[in-house]
Amino acid sequence: MRIALVSPYDFSYPGGVTNHITCLERYLREMGHYVRVVGPASKVSNLFNGQFIAIGKPRPLPASGSICRVTISPWISGKIKDILIRENFDIVHLHEPFMPMICTTVLRMSESVNIGTFHAHAGSPGYEFGRPLSTFFLKRWFRRLDGHIAVSRPAQQFVNKYFPADYTIIPNGVDLEHFSPDVAPIDRFGDGKLNILFVGRLEKRKGLNYLLEAYHQVKKEFCKCRLIVVGPGTRLRKKYEKIIASEDMKDVVFVGHVNYDELPRYYKTADIFCSPAISRESFGIVLLEAMAMSKPIVASDIEGYASVMTSGEEGLLTPPKDVSGLSQSLMSLLTDHTLRLEMGGKGRITAAKYSWLRVSRQISDFYQETIKRTSTRHKK
Predict the structure, then answer these.
(1) What would the pLDDT profile of 5-31 be if each residue is shown by its tens digit?
(2) Contact 98, 125 (CB under 8 A)
(3) What are phi and psi of 212, to 5 degrees?
(4) CATH 1.10.10.10 fits 187-352, yes or no
(5) Is 2-173+355-373 a domain of CATH 3.40.50.2000?
(6) What whole-number distance in Å separates Cα of residue 328 and Cα of residue 47?
């Protein structure tokens, strides 16, 4: 099959959707499919071994408590039309298909079999952009989708409120070869202290402020521990560093952005992975990465996370914003080596169910089924 994977987001910045597309492209290509990734990139370099088709200049826009980098220029229709004619794709697979402008323009112009994957759980800027127009423009474009995928039950329930349809749930995947326990840990953190790891952008919805409060409590009772914070963000980092200084917290290390190749070593270094996000997580890719690395988890009991892990099995879930519950869960694992090993082992087994090899095969099968189902409407 000739497949286009279309992203609205800047491929020069890390994110759940771009990571999803990156892994999917690799596995579809290894199956023998012809694959091109279409999207914006502020730094193209040699993305996808030169098989990346760059469109538009991405701009940072605030959305859902985060910053999304998308192309908002309306002057991209001509280039998209040329690409679609030249490439003659069998499948155009749009991720967050109602995000302006690339996805909406491609969906409007594509004559291929169109598949939409919906990643968001709440506050999607695409929906907010389109709500006043949804009775006309977005619903008209929605009818151009031949197949509908949601990455989780929470994502399916969210999008179904706006656009009722038959959604197939195909989850995010995890690269078990990349996130392997066989990698080497970071040497400078191997001093005998137990390491608690946070991975995520420094945004309010990721809940790091609650983890800092919980860690402050934990440190008073269990001094031989450290908090390692991995992820981009400068504005809130300064605020967090002021809190740390004012409370005289010890052993909190901000690493900043870590590239994808280096990230498994940080998971390997961790004794516990903690993700205290307060909302708007449709899935929990970081949980899968930690589980693939056989690490026990402490996380917020939100829908997206609860759809991936079970409290008491791969780790412990606590109510969001519950500093006391968070600190108690961390203490339970810090003080019980056997429990950490048991939960980490169960996590690795769970992660295997989400291998990208398995997920990409599900998606490829979905393509074939959709082509067959719509064959009378799509004859080239």
Answers:
(1) 999 999 888 788 999 999 999 999 999
(2) no
(3) -65, -40
(4) no
(5) yes
(6) 44
